[in-house]
Design goal:
The complex is a heterodimer.
Chain A (H helix, E strand, L loop, with lengths): L3 E12 L2 E12 L3 E5 L6 H9 L6 E6 L2 E2 L11 E3 L11 H11 L4 H14 L15 H13 L6 E4 L7 H18 L3 E5 L2 H7 L2 E6 L2 E6 L1 H6 L4 H6 L4 E10 L5 E5 L4 E8 L9 E6 L4 E3 L8 E10 L4 E7 L4 E6 L8 E13 L4
Parallel strand pairs in A: 3-8, 3-9, 6-7, 7-8, 13-19
Antiparallel strand pairs in A: 1-2, 1-4, 4-5, 9-10, 11-12, 11-14, 12-13, 14-19, 15-19, 16-17, 16-19, 17-18
Helix pairs in contact in A: 2-3, 2-4, 3-4
Chain B lengths: L26 H22 L16 H7 L2 H35 L3 H12 L6 H12 L4 H8 L11 H25 L3 H9 L4 H29 L3 H6 L7 H10 L4 H31 L2
Helix pairs in contact in B: 1-12, 3-7, 3-9, 7-9, 8-9, 9-12, 11-12
Chain lengths: ~350, ~300
């Protein structure tokens, strides 16, 4: 709590009988970039709007930089906000859009000119200052919205699905640009998204939300490789899932597991082995890139029937069927040789507690 | 999460099955417009250039006499035309000042039942004939009526609210409000809430947000609402006749009298076109002024 710049405590929100937030707490360090990641309806936007001040929580508190903001009106919170739809003012030029927050603060005209110009330059909008938003492309509008929020030097920047209105190519470019911007200005940021790729690539920390609760928070690496709940494991990335019990473990991280129907499974490097007690039931999650082709006699090799494949550009993603009927997903750089069967082994995997039914 | 379309994108074109060739859809309304508006208007134009005392013949003898009689006479220009424009502008201005906050209130009402009741209350005067409503107003504004009595009771000097310009302005304002409010409710409801929130989050106060974001966003609606009520007001003849007691010479009234009482159809036609011109010029001026007001800080 002491070193957190933004501290959100136990937010509760109800709409009628529906609890949309069930005690959400967040701690964000200064200059950290944190993503709220989840399906639509998971409560991430509700959380954002409460932090922004446009929605009142039923209970809970918000502190920014040591100040209690829980009951402060949105206009006095000083938070920079970028909306999904950009929400630029169509009747104002780019310059006036960006200058708005400074004019409100009664900044001298000369200083407005320099600060707006530098914000516009920083976001590569030079030469567009006198255009109106309608004359700009989606990506340019996006950058105007960013410039408008950043020009006031907000203690906290909130981004609500800022890239979801852009087409794929542009989205990727903007992602890089955002990352670069974030590095250069060290801005404390909360980023709301349903897109795991954005969350994984941009964030210092990811907060995965589900049904109004935080499922897991951690670094992108942790979220991807060490999911702590079945929801996170299934939500982030693609994986092969097997119901297993822990049978035995080697010293080097290797483990022997047994599926519910008695099939033996070897994993060379099992992460979060302590997620379940020895002999306890768990879910084994194996990323497609952790599944490798094996030769038939090899230790840990399992026979699988080739069902289908998707060409994803950089890899071929194969869907295979183990003898016990479980799906296995395998990424291969080259198409598999003909034949009905292949042999696979698990080079890595992660144990996840089974979700309570 | 459903993504709203980016603001640059053109609204998606609705695809409808071709029930008929495209131009055919326009045919009924085109026939009505040409038959009941274009043709009479052309006739009226012919009337307006017919020399006094002659029967109008289509594309027959033409003269500008009827126009110069009006436009060359300070009495007509000042006493009639300027009164017409001034009274209409004034009553429309009051209708906007009263109607805008009302429309805002209705648009922000969350309770749908209450909202429906409000809208019904605003519209229901239109269910009554104008003349009947005007008589109602006359009962209120009468020299010994309740409004004058109340004004005297609170110490105001004796008011003359009927048979003068005040009465006409009150009547026209009253007539215009429902049209303006109904036009504005939809406009205000469509303000992008995010644009308003963006302004608040940048620290703007309520009045500042209204002035810089909300009002400019509704301005096109204010304009089209204004055009609607201005056209109704400037052409009205029943209200100046009844509430003005015939002493407030508005052009609509004069045209009616010239054509139907004096029988000088040619002059009445010329005045009709002058009224049309005055309407268009006034609207152009109002549009420019409002746009300038919204452009500035």
């Amino acid at each position: 709590m002491s070193d957190s710049f933004v501290s959100v405590r136990n937010l509760e929100k109800r709409y009628g009988a529906v609890r949309v937030l069930k005690g959400v707490s967040l701690d964000i360090k200064r200059n950290q970039f944190v993503s709220l990641l989840g399906h639509s309806g998971c409560g991430k936007t509700t959380t954002l709007r409460i932090v922004l001040g446009f929605l009142k929580a039923d209970s809970g508190s918000i502190h920014i930089d040591g100040q209690d903001m829980t009951h402060v009106s949105p206009r006095h919170r000083g938070i920079g906000m970028v909306f999904q739809s950009y929400a630029l003012w169509p009747h104002m030029s780019v310059f006036e859009n960006v200058a708005f927050g400074l004019r409100v603060r009664k900044v001298p005209e000369a200083e407005i000119a320099t600060r707006v110009t530098s914000a516009i330059e920083r976001l590569h909008l030079g030469g567009l200052a006198q255009r109106t938003p309608r004359e700009l492309s989606g990506g340019q509008q996006q950058r105007v919205a960013l410039a408008r929020a950043l020009v006031i030097n907000p203690p906290l920047l909130l981004l609500d699905e800022p890239l979801s209105n852009l087409d794929r190519q542009l989205r990727e470019d903007m992602r890089l640009e955002l990352k670069h911007l974030q590095r250069s200005i060290a801005q404390t940021t909360i980023y709301v998204t349903h897109d795991q790729d954005e969350a994984l690539s941009l964030s210092d920390r990811i907060v995965v939300m589900n049904l109004g609760q935080i499922e897991q928070q951690g670094s992108p690496h942790e979220i991807y490789f060490e999911p702590r709940t079945e929801f996170v494991a299934r939500f982030i990335g693609k994986a092969t899932f097997l119901d297993v019990t822990l049978d035995g473990a080697g010293a080097d991280g290797a483990a022997r597991l047994r599926t519910a129907d008695g099939m033996e499974v070897h994993v060379s490097k099992l992460r979060r082995r302590d997620a379940v007690a020895h002999g306890g039931r768990a879910l084994l999650a194996v990323r497609p890139e952790e599944v490798a082709l094996a030769s038939p006699g090899e230790a840990g090799a399992m026979r699988a029937r080739i069902v289908e494949f998707l060409f994803l550009g950089n890899v071929y993603r194969y869907q295979l069927l183990l003898d016990n009927g479980s799906d296995v997903f395998l990424d291969s750089r080259t198409p598999l040789d003909g034949g009905e069967f292949a042999h696979v082994r698990f080079d890595g995997g992660c144990l996840v507690p089974k979700a309570a039914q | 999460m459903t993504a709203p379309a980016p603001t640059t994108a053109a609204p998606p074109r609705r695809f409808l099955p071709a029930i008929a060739p495209h131009w055919l859809l326009l045919l009924p309304s085109a026939l009505i417009l040409i038959g009941l508006f274009g043709f009479p208007l052309a006739w009226l134009a012919q009337f307006s250039v017919t020399p006094p005392g002659q029967q109008p013949v289509f594309l027959g003898p033409m003269t500008g006499e009827n126009y110069t009689r009006f436009l060359g006479d300070v009495f007509y220009l000042e006493r009639i035309l300027w009164t017409t424009v001034r009274v209409s502008l004034l009553s429309c201005l009051f209708a906007v000042l009263i109607g805008y906050p009302l429309a805002f209130f209705v648009a922000q009402t969350r309770n749908q039942k209450f909202k429906a009741i409000l809208i019904a209350a605003i519209v229901c005067p239109l269910w009554l004939n104008t003349v009947i409503r005007v008589f109602g107003i006359m009962l209120l504004l009468f020299d010994n009526g309740p409004v004058v009595g109340l004004a005297q009771y609170i110490g105001l000097p004796a008011l003359q609210l009927l048979y003068n310009e005040t009465g006409v302005v009150i009547g026209l304002t009253y007539l215009a409000i429902p049209f303006f409010v109904i036009a504005m409710i939809g406009v205000i409801e469509q303000i992008d809430q995010r644009q308003v929130e963006a302004a608040y989050s940048l620290g703007a106060s309520g009045p500042y947000v209204f002035r810089r974001v909300i009002f400019p966003a509704t301005l096109p609606g204010v304009l089209s609402g204004f055009v609607l009520i201005f056209c109704i007001s400037i052409a009205s003849f029943a209200i100046p006749q009844l509430l003005g007691g015939g002493k407030v010479p508005m052009l609509g009234m004069l045209i009616y009298r010239t054509a139907n009482v004096s029988g000088n159809v040619a002059f009445a036609s010329a005045m009709s076109f002058i009224l049309l011109g005055a309407t268009l010029i006034s609207l152009a001026v109002v549009t420019l002024a409002l746009n300038r007001a919204a452009g500035g800080r």
